[in-house]
Amino acid sequence: MNTEEKIIKRLRNSAMSYLARYEVSEFQFKNTMKRKLSYFENNLNELEKDKLINQIKSEMVSSCFIDDNRYAETKIRSIRRQGGSQRLIFAKLNEKGISKDVIQSALNIVDEGYENPEIIAAVNFIKKKKNRCVL
After folding, report:
1. For 39-43, 64-68, 118-122, which range has the lowest pLDDT when averaged over its residues?
2. What span, in angstroms and rounded, lies between the C-alpha atoms of 26 and 72?
3. Helices 117-133 and 68-81: angle between axes, nearest 10 degrees
4. DSSP 3-state assignment of 49?
5. Cβ proximity of 121 and 85 under 8 Å
6. DSSP-assigned letter for residue 35
7. Cα–Cα distance measured from residue 19 to residue 81, given in angstroms and rounded to the nearest whole number
8. What is the pLDDT of residues 53-96, one digit of tens each?
9. How many CA atoms lie within 13 A of 21 on its CB side?
10. How far apart are CA 56 and CA 58, in angstroms?
């Protein structure tokens, strides 16, 4: 087993361990793998590192361990429960590397069946703030 194969094996194990604990976007996964790969002793150049990371990422995506649509829906549900607006949702998910099209389709799925989800989110936000002020 040569050095590159050992690095791939270690990186794959690291990726599986990471994805077992967290639901992440492709962008977050790539950044985390870059950081983890920098901890390994290797003499790879940046192009080779990117190639390895993209290989592992494509394996994880094809195995459905990483799914930006699923990640977006989960995050949107969480943010809505906390009283987050559509604007906040777009800002947070853009920060995580999710495209606007994916965010919009996930918003449509999550908000389906609610007449005005922004009002419901605002009410949840107000309730949360009100509960904090009670002595």
Report:
1. 118-122
2. 11
3. 50
4. helix
5. yes
6. H
7. 24
8. 999 999 999 999 999 999 999 999 898 888 888 899 999 999 99
9. 6
10. 6
How many beta carbons lie within 10 A of that of residue 68, not counting itself? 22
- Best CA proximity match to 52, nearest among 99, 14, 95: 14
Is residue 8 within 8 Å of 52, Cβ to Cβ? yes
3-state secondary structure of 67: coil
Q: Is 127 exposed, middle or buried (0-12, 13-18, 19+ CB in 10 A)?
A: exposed
> Ramachandran region of residue 83, left (φ > 0), alpha (ψ -120 to 50) or beta?
left
* Count, residues in the chain: 135
Number of neighbouring beta carbons within 10 Å of residue 21: 7
Structure tokens at 2: 């040569």
